[in-house]
Design a protein that fits this description.
Length: 263
């Protein structure tokens, strides 16, 4: 796993946006996997800026979001569809028909989840999957204990996740108990993963993800099995990594290589 440590969260946002923008320029028909939550917000703002000021073109980009709360429709202010419209889709030139967020009000969930997987496949698979991380090390809504081979399905949220996300809902009681989420197996099939983390509340989860054993108890640790993962994290989230200095050395070497190649 490549680990890039930025001084602060705005550094994380800019670096993450650069990776996404590079792909969009290189492959205008790319398939992006997108995440919600507080962490990627700054990256979305930077992408909106790049669209506005630099003409970054999303007209042929296809997106798939990781997850959605069960029971919330697209106009519910806490739904992930609403979040994506407000924070990205309504501000760039993406074709709305190319944006996919799981439908929290699907009737037959099993059939719906199988179709979501099929649509990803029909679009050629995900080129780059953006990921945040939960305080307990979950990716998407793959709570501790999720099978590392899991596919898109319904998942019961843990008390910790419900508590963490209550800040957006006003109270714990209003947070849905279930979500549709891509599985760990689904995420591992994307060609590249971009894991973002900021703040000290993520420091333990990041240590377990990057340096701990691969375990279903920390579903992000499954990323160690993926061939192309870039973790972009700030100093606070990196604080508990034992090999922080080494990751910095690697990045310095990487920069020299890129300068040599004129990138
Ligand atoms: C939720 C989402 C995850 C996200 C996590 C962290 O559980 N399903 O995709 O990574 O929250 O969110 P935040 O970035 O707000 O800390």
């Amino acid at each position: 796993m490549r680990v890039i440590v930025e001084p602060d969260s705005s550094g994380v946002s800019r670096t993450a946006a650069r990776f996404v923008a590079r792909l969009v320029r290189h492959k205008p028909t790319c398939v992006l996997g997108l995440a919600t939550g507080g962490t990627p917000l700054g990256m979305y703002q930077e992408l909106i800026r790049m669209h506005r000021d630099e003409g970054l073109d999303f007209s042929r980009v296809v997106t798939f979001n990781l997850d959605e709360y069960v029971g919330l429709g697209p106009t519910h202010p806490q739904s992930y569809r609403y979040f994506m419209q407000q924070n990205l889709f309504d501000h760039i030139n993406i074709d709305q028909r190319n944006t996919h967020v799981p439908d929290g009000r699907a009737l037959d969930f099993e059939a719906y989840c199988a179709r979501y997987e099929q649509t990803i496949e029909d679009e050629g698979g995900i080129d780059l999957q953006v990921l945040g991380i939960g305080g307990d090390g979950h990716i998407a809504f793959n709570e501790p204990g999720s099978s590392l081979g899991s596919r898109t399905r319904l998942k019961t949220l843990t008390a910790e996740t419900i508590r963490d996300n209550a800040r957006f809902f006003g109270s714990v009681e209003q947070v849905p108990r279930l979500a549709i989420t891509m599985g760990v197996g689904t995420i591992l099939e994307s060609r590249q993963c971009l894991l973002l983390a900021t703040g000290e509340a993520k420091a333990v989860a990041i240590r377990e993800t990057v340096e701990g054993p691969v375990t279903a108890q920390v579903t992000a640790s499954a990323l160690q099995l993926h061939r192309d993962v870039i973790a972009v994290i700030d100093e606070l989230a990196a604080a508990r990594l034992a090999r922080r200095d080494y990751y910095r050395e690697v990045e310095r070497a990487q920069e020299l290589l890129e300068a040599d190649r004129g990138e």
